C-alpha cells in the first residue's frame, strides 16, 4: 500500500459530521436539562425525551453521506473501528452486569451517563484501526 490513510476532518464532509454530532449532543443536553429542571408533564415530557432522536437521525444521514464519498481505505478503517468498538462495548456491558451480581445489587454507577463512554471507546478503536493501515 503506497497511500497513507488520511483523516478527513478537514474536508467538508468531516466538518458536517462534527457539526451534526455536536448538534445531536446539544439537543440531548437541552432535552435532559428540560426534563430534569422543568419537571415537564405529558405530552411535553415525551417531546423533550424524544427530541434528540431527530438530531440523531440527521447525524446518521450525514455520516452515511460522508462514508459514501470516502475511499475504500477510509471505509475499511471505519468498519474495523466500528467492529472493535461494538465488541468492546459488549464486553464492557457484560462486565458491568457480572459486577452487579458479585456486588450483591446495583452498582453505584450512573447508568444515565454510560453512553458517554461509547464515543471514547470508538475513538480508541479508530486510532487502533488507523494505526494498522498506516
Features:
75% helix, mainly alpha, 134 residues, 2 domains
Summarize the amount of helix as a percent range. over 70%
How many structural domains can be distinguished in the coordinates? 2
Give the H and E element order: HHHH
- Round the mean pLDDT to the nearest integer and report it: 89
What percentage of amino acids are in beta strands? under 5%
Form type: flat
Distance linking N and C termini = 9 Å
Report on the biggest sheet.
Answer: none
Mind telling me the C-alpha Rg? 18 Å
Tell me the number of strands.
Answer: 0
Secondary structure category: mainly alpha
Detailed description of the structure:
The radius of gyration is 18 Å and the shape is flat. The chain has two domains: 8-70; 71-134. With 134 residues, the protein is mostly helical. The N and C termini lie close together (9 Å). It contains four helices and no strands. The model has no long low-confidence stretch (mean pLDDT 89). Helix content is 75%, strand content 0%.
Give the helix/strand layout.
Layout (H helix, E strand, L loop, with lengths): L11 H26 L6 H26 L2 H32 L13 H16 L2
